[in-house]
Hints:
The complex is a heterodimer.
Chain A: H1 2-8, H2 11-49, E1 53-57, H3 70-78, E2 82-94, E3 106-112, H4 117-120, E4 128-129, E5 137-141, H5 142-148, E6 155-158, E7 161-169, H6 174-177, E8 180-183, H7 184-190, E9 199-204, H8 210-220, E10 224-228, H9 232-235, H10 237-272, H11 274-282, H12 287-323, H13 335-362, H14 365-370
Parallel strand pairs in A: 3-8, 5-7
Antiparallel strand pairs in A: 1-9, 1-10, 2-3, 2-9, 4-7, 5-8, 6-7
Helix pairs in contact in A: 1-12, 2-10, 2-12, 2-13, 10-12, 10-13, 12-13
Chain B: E1 2-11, E2 16-26, E3 31-35, H1 42-49, E4 57-62, E5 65-66, H2 73-80, E6 81-84, H3 96-106, H4 111-124, H5 140-151, E7 158-162, H6 170-187, E8 190-194, E9 206-211, E10 214-218
Parallel strand pairs in B: 3-8, 3-9, 6-7, 7-8
Antiparallel strand pairs in B: 1-2, 1-4, 4-5, 9-10
The structure holds adenosine-5'-triphosphate and magnesium ion.
Amino acid sequence: MFVVKNLLRRRVRTALSVMGVAIGIAAIVAFSAIGDGFQASLSTYFSESQAQLAIFSGNVADMAMSRVTREQKERVLAVPGVLEVSEGTFYVAASAGLRATGSLPALLLFGRAPGTRLMRKYDNGELRGRLLMKEDEILLGFLAAENLGKEPGDTLDFLERTFTVAGVYKTGATWENGGAVVHNAVIQKHLAMGDAFSLGFVYLKDLRQTERVQNDILNAVPGLSVTKATEVPDYFSDQLQYIDWFVWIVSLVAVIIGGLGVLNTMLMNVSERVREIGTLRAVGWSRPMVLWLIFSEGFLISVIGGVLGLAWGVAGAEILVHFAPKGFIHTVYTAEIFGKAAVVAAVLGVVGSLYPAFRASRLSPIEALKYE
Amino acid sequence: MIRTEQLVKTYENGAIKALQGVDVAIAKGEFACIMGPSGSGKSTFLNMIGALDRPTSGRVWLNGHDLTNVPDLDRIRAREVGFVFQLHNLIPTLTAAENVEIPMFAVGRARAERQKRAAELLELVGLTHRANSIAVKLSGGERQRVSIARALANRPGVILADEPTGDLDSATGREIMKTLEQMRRESGATLIVVTHDLEVGERAGRWFRMRDGRMTEDAR
Ligand SMILES: Nc1ncnc2c1ncn2[C@@H]1O[C@H](COP(=O)(O)OP(=O)(O)OP(=O)(O)O)[C@@H](O)[C@H]1O
Ligand SMILES: [Mg+2]
C-alpha cells in the first residue's frame, strides 16, 4: 500500500521516470527484434538455396564486393565431389530509374543463372508465372510485385532495359521477397564485372563429404573463402556485429538515461521525505526496512517502465515494419529479447534505487526529525 | 521503568554539552513532566531514554533493557517506546488508520491484526469516523490524536511526548493532554511529557526542571 501511494504522490515525476525506462526498453526490444529478423532472413536465404558450401573472394567486407573469377570456379568444379557451382551476383538498383508506382527507395537485385540449382528455390509451389530464361526477363518477389503493382506478363523499365516479368516468387527470406531476380549477365554488364560473380553456391554429390570438400577447395583455390552454407550468417557476423553493436549502444544509452531518471526521481523523493523517513525510524523501522521501502519504490518504477517499454517496443517495431518498404525489415521476437529487456529493466531498477535507498537508510532519525 | 545514571551527551566533540550528568528514576505508570528553557537539553534527554540515540557516557535503562549495551536500538524503539512529537509527523498521503499501522510493520504484525489494532486505537482516541481520511485532511488536533494512537500501536511501556501541544491552540492542547493521560491510565505505560506550558504539566505526578543539561526535581 505504501510503495504505490508514495509513487502516486508525485505523479508527474513518477510518470516521467517510468517513461524514461519505457523508452529505453522499447528501443532495445524494437532494435533487437529487427536485428534478429535480419539474421533470421539471412540464414533462411542460405538454407533455402540447399547448397552445402558458399564461395566468395577472401577478405571482403561486403558480399557485393566479392569477385569470383571463372578460372577459380573451374578449379572448384575440378575438386572431387563437387556437383555444381551456381553463380550469384547482387546489385542494389536505385528506384529513380524504376519509375515505379509504389514507393521503393531501392530494389535489391539478385543475379542468377537460368537452369541452375540455385534458381530452383524460386520454383517452390508459391511461384506465379514461370522461372526466368532470358536476359530481358525478371522475377519479382511478391512484396516487390505488390509495391510495383506488377503481375507476370507486365513489363518493367529500368537499368536502361525493358524487362518482362516472367514470374512472382515467394521465399522464406523477407528481403528476397522485397527484391527481384535477374539474369547474372544483367548485373555483370551493369557493374562491368566481366564474367566474374560474387557468391558461388556449391552443391555436392555427397552431403557427408562437405567437410572434406571444403578443405580441398581451400587448398586448391587460394584467395577464395569457403564456408558451409549453414555458417555463412556466422561468417558475416562481423558485419552483423555492427547491428549487435548498435543494439548494445542503444541499450547502454537506455540504461544510462533510464537509470539516471530513476536515480534522480528517487533522490528527489528521498530528500523531500527526510522527516518522514526520520519518523519511520523513530517508530521502530530499522535501516533495512527503510532501504527496502525506497528500493521497492524505485524498482516498481522500473518494472512498470519495463512492461510499458515491452509493449511500446513491439508496437514501435511493427509500426516500422508497416511503414518501411515491404520486405526491407521484419521482426523476430525471441524469448531472449524479452529476457534481455527484463534484465535491463531490473538493472535500471537496482542501479537507480539502490543508492537513494542506501542514503535514506543512513539518515539519522534525530537529524531527520529536526529537518525542516 | 526508566533510570539514568550520570547520563552525558555532548555534540561536536564535546564542544556542546547537551546533557551533563543526569540521574533520574521514573517508575512504571508514572506521569512525569519536564520543563526548562530552550536548549536546556530536554529533547536530547528524551532521545536518550527513547532509544533514538546513544549517550556519550553514563547509562540508561528502559523497562529492564540496558540501552548502553543493546546492539539494536530499532527493536527497542519499536516495542518499548511510543513517541509523540510537537509536529505530528504523520505520513501525509496515508489515511489515519494506515498511519497508525506503521509501527506495527516494524514488529512484523500481519495485515488483519494491524487493521484490527488500528481501528481499536482510533476508537480509543475518538477518531473512528476519521479512520479513512488521509492525514493532510485532518485538523491539527485530529492529527495529534492519530499520532498518539500510533505511539500506542505496539503497546509500549513508555510514551514520550516532546511538546505535544506546542503547535495547537490551548483548548485543543488540553484535549490532547487529556487523551494522553487517559491512554497512560488505560495502558499502564509511563508518560513523560516535555513542555513549556505550565498548564500542560498540571496533572503530572512528578515535575522535572532542566537547565544547562542538568535535571532537578521539583517537590510538589
Ligand atoms: N545534533 C546536534 N548537534 C549539535 N548540537 C545539538 C544537536 N542536538 C542538540 N544540540 C544542542 O544541544 C543542546 C540541547 O538541545 P535540545 O534540543 O535537547 O534542547 P531543548 O531543551 O529540547 O530545547 P527546545 O525547548 O528549544 O526544544 C542545544 O544547545 C542544542 O543546540
Ligand atoms: Mg526540544
